[in-house]
Amino acid sequence: MKENAEKFRALDPAELDKQLREGAEQMFRLRFQMSMGQTDGLKKLRSLRKERARILTVLKEKGSAPSPAATPAPLVTKVSVRKKAAPKAAQQRKKGE
Known about the structure:
This protein has 97 residues and is mainly alpha-helical. The chain has helices spanning 2-9, 13-35, 42-62, 88-96.
């Protein structure tokens, strides 16, 4: 594990940012393929997440922030919850009052 972090520490922040963007794109494509049932790439996805964490750690150590384009797309978008409609009996009682 140490050798992986050392490999990233030798790179400059611009190169780390580039690798972070490429990894995010790979993760997106892999998640998409997994959702379509085209591949069983769980090991690859895990290794990409660990690599991304190592890169972010090295960037934080160097004191530079990753670019916003390097963050992966969210898995789930926020869904608004709809209120349930009142039963017809309750609606009729309100009309009769």
